[in-house]
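Q: Predict the bound structure with pyridoxal-5'-phosphate.
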Amino acid sequence: ALDDHASGRHFLQIPGPSPVPDRILRAISLPTIDHRGPEFATLGKKVIGGLQQVFQTEHPVVIYPASGTGAWEAALVNVASPGDSLLMYETGHFASLWQKMAQRLGLEPEFLALPGIDETGLPRSWRHGVQADLIEERLRKDGAHRIKAVCVVHNETSTGVTSDIAAVRRAIDAAGHPALLMVDTISGLASADYRHDAWGVDVTVSGSQKGLMLPPGISFNALSPKAIEAARTARLPKAFWAWDEIVEMNKGGYWPCTPSTNLLYGLSEALDMVLEQGLPAVFARHQRWGEGVRTAVRAWGLPTQCADERVHSPVLTGVITPQGVDADALRRLIHERFDLSLGAGLGKLRGRMFRIGHLGDCNDLTLMAALTGVEMGLKLAGVPLAGSGVLAAMAFFAGTPLVDVASR
Ligand code: PLP
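A: Predicted complex:
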C-alpha cells in the first residue's frame, strides 16, 4: 500500500513525552539488576544526588514509579488533612486537573484566576502566568490561616506560559502567611530555570517524560524541611505515597518497594547528559529553541497562546488558530500527511490551538523540519498566512548562536 510514512522517524513534537535520545534508550536496555543488591545502592544514591542538583536543592527528592499525576497526589496527601483549604491558581488545563484532584481527596481548593476572556475569545487566565498580587491579596484576608498550601504550576503545558515562582514566595511572605508553597514543574524541570531552595518552594512535583528526556513512568517530589515537618502531623491517609519510609531507605540508596530499575538507568544517563552540559546551557538551549519557534509563529501572523512576552515557555509554544479553523482537524492532517504529532488544545482551548514542543532529543534541524510540517499543513488547510515562518526561523537559527543566548 502507498504510505507516506513508510520510512524515517516519527516526529514526536508534543510537549512531552519528548523524544528519547539514543544514549538513554541504550542505558534503559541493560539487564535489570537486584534492587536489594550491592550495585543498586550506587545507582540509587547517584540518581538522587543528581536530581538534587537539577532541582537545585539540598533536601530529599522522592522518586515514585508513577506518572506525574501520582506525584501530584503524593504532594497533597503527605501534607494535608481532610477538609484543609488550599489556594490554587488557574493557569490552564493542568492547574485545573490538580484542583479537581484536590477536591476528590476531600480538600477544599479555592481556584484563583485572572477574570474575563480576551479578543481571541479565550480565557485571560489561560494566556498569562500566575498573578502573585492576587495571591497576596487573598492570603491577607485569611487572618485565621486556614489555607494550608498555595499550589501553582510553573510551566503550564496546556498553554506554553510560565509563572514567576519566586514572586509567589514573596507574596506569601509579604502577607505573613504560613502556607506551604507547592509547585508543579512536571514540564519545566531540566528545560526552564527552576530553583527549589532559592525560591523557597516546599514541595516541587515533576516527571520523567519532559525535560529529562526519559520515557514516562517515574515522577518526583522535592521536599523542604517545612514540608517534611508538615507530613508528620497531616492526617489524609497515605501509605504508598508516604515520604517518611522512602526518604529513610533512600539514605542507603534503596527503596521500600521495587523501583523502576531500568528507568533509573535511563535517569542516571539523563542526569549525566544534563549535568555534563550544565544547567545554564540547558536553559539557554531551550530558550533559543522557543525564540526560534516564536519567530516562525510571528511570521505566519498567528497569535501565541501566551499573551505576555515576559513569560513565554522555553519548552513549548501554543499557537492559536484563526476563528473557524479547527485546530484538531489541522493536527490530524499534519499527522496523516507528514508523520508529525503536535499537542492538542486541552480543556477550554479544545480545537482553538495546537502546541509545538521544543524539548527532548531535538536540534535546530529537527525543529526546522517540524516547522516545515506545520507550515505545509497550515497551507493545505487553507489558513491564510502573513508570510513564511520556515524562512524566518531559518534566519533566526542561522543568525543566533547559542553563546549569544547564553550570555544575555
Ligand atoms: N502537570 C503538568 C504541567 C503536565 O504537563 C502533566 C502532563 O503532561 C501533568 C501534570 C500530568 O502528568 P502525567 O500525565 O505524567 O500523569
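A: Residues 16, 67-69, 94, 153, 157, 184, 186-187, 207, 216 surround pyridoxal-5'-phosphate (CB under 6 Å).
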